[in-house]
Amino acid sequence: MSTPLMEARGLQLRFGRVAALDDVAIDIHPGEVVAIVGESGSGKTTLLRVLSGLMRPDAGAVTYRGEDVLAMPEAARRRLMRTEWGFVHQNPRDGLRLGVTAGGNIGERLMAVGARHYGNIRAEATEWLKRVEIDPARMDDIPGKFSGGMQQRLQIARVLVTRPKLVFMDEPTGGLDVSVQARLLDLIRALVADLGLAVLIVTHDIAAARLLAHRILVMRQGQVVEEGLTDRVLDDPQHAYTQLLVSSVLAA
Ligand SMILES: Nc1ncnc2c1ncn2[C@@H]1O[C@H](COP(=O)(O)OP(=O)(O)OP(=O)(O)O)[C@@H](O)[C@H]1O
């Protein structure tokens, strides 16, 4: 197998008496989609935040292409976040600039990686609006005029326009109507495959994990209780907690 893009070992993080991460290890390989599932409060978002350098663990190691993420100067981590990494927030408002037009939200990311030619930036923004199924005629609208699903698609365009290698997604379809969720999942799946992205996605939704992920990590009380290829984990869960999680979805 390829060398992992990102590796983490022995991650520990406590909030008072709560162990949000309790000796967590994870590898993410280039082009691989890994889903983190588990009940509310199991540590999924905390893991995403620690891996992306937004939060420091009490102990453990995180490397990206062999480089120590935790020892990186803040400026270097921010540069990675603008270039090789992307973060898709559950609430698009956390990932968009609300006072800036749709085209500006996409163009701004391109400018952050050195694009300067106005015509090219606008052409690329047009292309990306089409890719995420937003009418380019809405280019000069601010995100506040968009529906929740459109805002989320715009956030995805803003993140993917710079062709990151690793994208962190925190419940990207949470808070949307079921029909909108299904369409968005299909769109994410197509873009991820097309761009060959590595994705670490936190989701409550087992069906979303099945659709998108090559591999699943099941978290409970800050620990990874089960990990494996998606079909194996969902069709033949070994840990009692995973069995409960899968059967509760089947029963729903
Ligand atoms: N900033 C914080 N301060 C105090 N406790 C926190 C903080 N962030 C997370 N926690 C606690 O750490 C544990 C893990 O939280 P986390 O948000 O990672 O879980 P989660 O699995 O993402 O949950 P959800 O699915 O509800 O988003 C929870 O008990 C939570 O209350």
Could you outline the blueprint of secondary structure elements for this entry?
Layout: E1 6-15, E2 18-28, E3 33-38, H1 44-51, E4 59-64, E5 67-68, H2 74-82, E6 85-88, H3 92-95, H4 102-112, H5 118-131, H6 148-160, E7 166-170, H7 178-195, E8 198-202, H8 206-212, E9 215-220, E10 223-229, H9 230-235, H10 240-251
Parallel strand pairs: 3-8, 3-9, 6-7, 7-8
Antiparallel strand pairs: 1-2, 1-4, 4-5, 9-10
Helix pairs in contact: 4-5, 4-6, 5-6, 6-7
Question: What does this protein structure show overall?
Answer:
Keywords: ATP-binding, Lyase, Nucleotide-binding. InterPro entries: AAA+_ATPase, ABC_transporter-like_ATP-bd, ABC_transporter-like_CS, P-loop_NTPase, PhnK. It holds the Pfam family ABC_tran. This is Phosphonate C-P lyase system protein PhnK. GO terms for molecular function: ATP binding; ATP hydrolysis activity; lyase activity. By secondary structure, the protein is α/β, with parallel strands linked by helices. The protein has 2 domains: 167 residues, Rossmann fold; 66 residues, no CATH class. 40% of the residues lie in helices and 25% in strands. It is built from 10 helices and 10 strands. The strands form 2 sheets. Strands 6-7-8-3-9-10 form a 6-stranded mixed sheet, sandwiched between helices. It has a 4-stranded antiparallel sheet with strand order 2-1-4-5, with helices on one face. A hairpin with a 2-residue loop joins strand 4 and strand 5. The longest helix is centred in the last third of the chain and has 18 residues. The radius of gyration is 18 Å and the shape is globular. The mean pLDDT is 93. The site of adenosine-5'-triphosphate has 11 residues, from strand 2 and helix 1.
